[in-house]
Each structure stands twice: as structure tokens, then as C-alpha cells.
Amino acid sequence: MGKRIDTIIKHLNNKSTCLYMILCVLIIFGFVLWQFTPCLEEFGLSFFTGMIGVLITIAIVENILKSIDAEKTVPLRLAAYEEIRSYLGKYIDFWASAYRDSVPDNPPDTIQDLFTEIEMEKICKNLYLDSNKPSVLPEMKYWDWIVQSAQRFKENGDKILDRYVNCLDPTAFKYIHQITDSGLILALSNIINMRKHYIDAGVPRLPVLYTYAIPVKAHVDNINGLIQWCEQQHKLLLKHDPKIISVTKQYRVWDRVRTPKCMITEYAIEKYQCDERAYKQKILKNFLRVREIRSDELNKIYLEKINTKT
């Protein structure tokens, strides 16, 4: 109910909407005079048809002015679309590359198939962060590549919002803002810091992305929403520039890799399980030692009380 009220208030704040509402009221008023007031029937008919004419004229003029304004903003819209398409294309490549490097299943057929909770979870559970990222120079671990990529996504997304703050479609602005400020991007930017924290604390963690970051439904929905926005803009802008590229054409399905180079290995899993058992045994020993010390202290206090009474 609250959202509906906010929507009504938003429409009322629009001057054009208010004008149309006033004209509709006047048209109804003229119709009532024409049909239900015999003494004012001619005036009512004249007023009714006159208001309809005014409404049609205003609508035509408004559409012409909107078309002129839209033509003026075409260069900015094209520039914004190209930057967002490039930004989104790199984001798609990031996850498609991670999928190809770590998941032994058949690749998703479309971008929309890639950006689902199920497929993203496959990446997070299979991506071995201690492996080297293929086809990257200089060579680096997936840890470093993910952090660098996440930081670039944050910086480049914020630059787009700053550059086109006055002309960017509110829908696209919302999606980009929610992506750059998402918990996923923040987590990806800090996975090395989180790993250091666990190492310093002596807590064993399985070196897969799922341990540190999990794409939630809201983030996946924002990506798919931005993809859909790009497709809509591509259709609208194609008549102005036939050379612009659709974001969906940047996605290429690859051949299935049965044993991806960066999939978590059995050795890594066994090592983690061994470290986890040793850690739990250590915790248990510490607990028993503390309990034993505490028990000795309580016995000592009890004996002192008995000696004091005697």
C-alpha cells in the first residue's frame, strides 16, 4: 500500500501528469453539462469538444518535444550504452572464465543461464583459489586476479555513475549502483585479507571461492536486469548507429572441459580435512586443559574453605 501511495505522489509531482488530470476533469465536467443540464446543453457540448481538442493538441505537442529532446540526447545515450556494455561484457567474461576454468559441466547456453544461483554456486564451490589463472600475464594466483578484477569493477562502475549522473536512465543507474555496492564485490575485493585473518587465527579454510564469497539472488537479479536493460537500449539505439554491438553477442559458448585446470583437487580437499581434524583436536585439548585447570582451582578453593572452618 505504501509503495502505491509513493507512486501516486510521484505521478502527482509530474507537471505533465497534473495537467492531463485537470483536462480530464474539465472534459468530464463538460460532458455532464452537455448530457444532464438541458439549459447548458450547447455550452456543455462546446466546452466538452473544446477540452478534447486541447487534450489532443497538448499530447501531440508533448510527443513532438519529447522526440526532439530524445534526438538531442542520442550521442550521450550511445556513449553511456557503450560504456555500460563494455563494463558488463568484462563482468560476464570474468564469471564465464571462472566457470570454464573450474566447472567440469557443459557450459551455459546463454548469459541468462550463466547468471543463475545454481551456476554461480558451481563456480564458487569448484574454483581452486591457490591455482594460477590461465592466460594471464604476469602469472598470478586466482586470489590476486579476483581481487584486482573486483576492485576494477567497483572503480569503473562508480566512474560510469559519476560521468552520466545527469543523463543515465534511472533503471541502469540503480542496477550499476547495486552491483558496485554489493556485498559480493566487497567480499571479492577482500578475500586475501580474509585469508590472512584465518591464517593468523590458525583456522583452516578450504581454498575455494565459496568459503569467502557467495553470489546471492539479489546480485544475480541485478546482473540480469542490467543485461535486459542493455538489450532494450540496443534495439532503441540501433537505428541511430547500426554498428553498435549487443551485449549478448559478447558471450561465446566454449567446449566442455572435463578436468578444468583450476578445479579444486582431491589432494587440496584431503589436506583441508586433515587440517580441520587437527584444528578440532587442538580446540578440544585446549578445552579439556582449561576445564582441568578450572577444576583444580575450584578444588583448591573448596579445601581452603574447609580448612578455614576447621
Q: Features of this protein?
A:
310 residues; mainly alpha; 2 domains; 12 helices; disordered N terminus
Q: What topology emerges from the helices and strands here?
A:
Blueprint: H1 2-12, H2 15-36, H3 41-72, H4 74-102, H5 111-114, H6 117-126, H7 142-163, H8 170-180, H9 183-189, H10 191-201, H11 217-237, H12 266-309
Describe, in plain words, how this protein is organized in 3D.
By secondary structure, the protein is mainly α. It has 2 domains: 70 residues; 189 residues, no CATH class. Helices cover 72% and strands 0% of the residues. It contains 12 helices and no strands. Helix 4 packs across helix 11. 21% of the residues are buried. The N terminus is likely disordered.
Please sum up the structure shown.
The chain has 310 residues and is mostly helical.
